[in-house]
Specification:
Helix 3 packs across helix 6 and helix 7 packs across helix 13. Strand 2 and strand 3 form a beta hairpin. The protein folds into 2 domains: about 250 residues, Thiolase/Chalcone synthase (Peroxisomal Thiolase, Chain A, domain 1, 3-Layer(aba) Sandwich), CATH 3.40.47; about 150 residues, 3-Layer(aba) Sandwich (Peroxisomal Thiolase, Chain A, domain 1), CATH 3.40.47.10. The strands form 3 sheets. The chain has a 10-stranded mixed sheet with strand order 5-4-6-8-1-9-15-14-10-11, with helices on both faces. The chain has a 3-stranded mixed sheet with strand order 2-3-7, with no helix packed on it. A two-stranded antiparallel ribbon has the order 12-13. It starts with 7 loop residues before the first strand and ends with a strand. By secondary structure, it is of the alpha/beta class. It has 14 helices and 15 strands.
Length: about 425
C-alpha cells in the first residue's frame, strides 16, 4: 500500500479540561453532564463565567521551567507526556528526529503581552522592566516548541493558527504528514490559554457574544432559546497518531481511525458563520471517507451558544443529514465551555470512548429548544445507550470563516 493511502490511528490521548485531567474522568463527567464552569474575576474586566483547568502542573517539569515558559506550554507539556504514557509508548521507540509535533492554536501571546504591560505599569511604563523572556514566549510555535524541549523531540514542530478549527486542523496535518512519510509518529492537538486574557473577554462582550447566567454552569447553553454567547475556557488535548501497521506491531490500544476530513472557507464575514459552507465541508469529509450521512452515528457539534452561529450549524446539519434516523447529535461545550484552539480535539476525545461503551454523552442546559435549532436525535440531559457506535463526525468552525470536519471510525481489521 502506498503511503498516501496508509491508515492512520489514534493510540494515545492526554488532556486537561475544566472538569478533568485524564480521558477516563473526562468521559465519566461528560456522561453525567458534570460541569466545572465557575466565575472568575479578570483584571480590568471584572467577573465572568469561565472554564479553568486543574492538573498536576509539575508532574513533568519543574516549577521554575513552568515559570520561564507559558501557560500554553505548561498545558501542552502535561498533555504530551500523558498522551505518550496513555499510548504505552517509550520515548525512544521512534527515532526522535522522525516525530512531528503539530499544535493548533486560536490565539497565542495575548496573555503574555497583557501581563507584561500590566507589570511595567507598576513602574511608570518603563520598558526596562519588560522581561527578556517575552519574545520566545510569544512566538507562535512556542507551545509546540516547549513540548519538543520537554520530550527531546528533534523532528519538525509548529503551530497551526486556524481559529477555533485549529484542533481539527492539527489532526489533519498530522495524518497528512504521516501519509507523506515525513514523520513516523505525530503528536497533534490543540491548546488554549485564553482565560488569562481580559481582552478576549472584553472583545466577546463588545460583540454581544459573551455568555452569562446567574449560575455560571448554565452560562453555556447551545441550542437553547435563551442562549446569549460563548463561555471562554482554557484547555488542551494531544493525541498520538501512528500508521496502523506500526501500531499493530507494538500491540497498541487503538482509540479510532482517521476516516476522512475536510477544511474550507466561508469567504463571507470576519465573525458571522455561513451554514452553506459548513454543509459543503461536511459533505466533502463524507465523500473522502467514502461514507453516506446514514453511516455517521454521532455528530459532535461545534455550536458555541451564540444566537446566529448555532442556527447556521443546525441549518448545515439538516441540509446534509436530512434527519438521518441513525445519526445522533451532541454538544460538549455545554458542559466544558469553549476551549478555542483545543475545542475540536477535546470534544472528539470526549466522544471517542463511545466506541467502547456505545453511549452518546448528552448536551446540557437546554431548557427551551430554539425551533431554529431543532435537530432530530439531539441528545439532551442524559446519555443515550445505543446497540453500537462506529463513527463520529467532529465539527469545528472559526472566525474569519474557517471550517473543519474530521470523521473518525472505530478500528476494525
Amino acid at each position: 500500500m502506498d503511503n498516501l493511502h496508509k491508515r492512520v490511528v489514534i493510540t494515545g490521548i492526554g488532556l486537561a479540561a475544566p472538569n478533568a485531567d485524564n480521558i477516563k474522568d473526562f468521559r465519566e463527567k461528560l456522561l453525567r453532564g458534570e460541569s466545572n464552569i465557575r466565575e472568575i474575576d479578570l483584571r480590568y474586566f471584572g467577573k465572568a463565567p469561565a472554564g479553568i483547568c486543574t492538573f498536576p502542573e509539575t508532574r513533568y517539569r519543574k516549577k521554575k521551567e513552568n515559570k520561564r515558559g507559558t501557560r500554553a506550554g505548561c498545558l501542552g507539556v502535561y498533555c504530551a507526556h500523558e498522551a505518550m504514557n496513555n499510548a504505552n509508548l517509550a520515548l525512544d521507540y521512534y527515532d526522535k528526529s522522525r516525530i512531528g509535533v503539530y499544535i493548533g492554536l486560536t490565539e497565542h501571546g495575548t496573555v503574555e503581552t497583557e501581563n507584561e504591560i500590566y507589570n511595567i505599569s507598576q513602574y511608570g511604563y518603563n520598558t526596562d522592566y519588560w522581561t527578556h523572556h517575552h519574545n520566545p514566549r510569544t512566538v507562535l510555535n512556542n507551545p509546540a516548541g516547549e513540548i519538543t524541549m520537554s520530550l527531546g523531540i528533534t523532528g519538525p514542530h509548529y503551530s497551526i493558527g486556524a481559529a477555533c478549527a485549529a484542533g481539527n486542523a492539527s489532526l489533519i496535518q498530522g495524518a497528512q504528514m504521516l501519509r507523506l512519510g515525513e514523520v513516523d509518529m505525530a503528536l497533534v492537538g490543540g491548546i488554549s490559554e485564553s482565560t488569562g486574557s481580559f481582552g478576549i473577554f472584553a472583545s466577546f462582550k463588545a460583540q454581544g457574544a459573551l455568555g452569562s447566567a446567574p449560575d455560571p454552569r448554565q452560562a453555556c447553553r447551545p441550542f437553547d432559546l435563551s442562549r446569549n454567547g460563548i463561555v471562554v475556557s482554557e484547555g488542551a488535548c494531544i493525541y498520538v497518531l501512528e500508521i496502523l501497521e506500526n501500531a499493530l506491531e507494538r500491540n497498541a490500544q487503538i482509540y479510532g481511525e482517521i476516516a476522512g476530513y475536510a477544511m474550507n472557507s466561508d469567504a463571507n464575514d470576519f465573525v458571522l458563520p455561513l451554514g452553506e459552507r459548513q454543509a459543503e465541508c461536511m459533505m466533502l469529509a463524507l465523500q473522502r471517507a467514502k461514507m453516506s450521512p446514514r453511516d455517521i452515528d454521532i455528530i459532535s457539534t461545534h455550536a458555541t451558544g451564540t444566537p446566529q452561529g448555532d442556527i447556521e450549524e443546525c441549518k448545515a446539519i439538516r441540509q446534509v443529514f436530512n434527519d438521518s434516523p441513525t445519526t445522533y447529535i451532541n454538544n460538549t461545550k455545554s458542559i466544558i465551555g469553549h476551549a478555542m484552539g483545543a475545542a475540536g480535539v477535546l470534544e472528539l476525545a470526549g466522544n471517542l470512548p463511545s466506541f467502547q461503551d456505545n453511549k452518546v454523552h448528552p448536551t446540557i442546559n437546554v431548557r427551551t429548544l430554539d425551533p431554529e435549532c431543532s435537530l432530530k436525535n439531539l441528545v439532551l440531559d442524559v446519555p443515550l445507550q445505543l446497540d453500537s457506535i462506529s463513527t463520529i463526525l467532529n465539527n469545528s468552525f472559526g472566525m474569519v470563516g474557517i471550517n473543519s470536519t474530521v470523521i473518525v471510525k472505530k478500528y476494525s481489521s
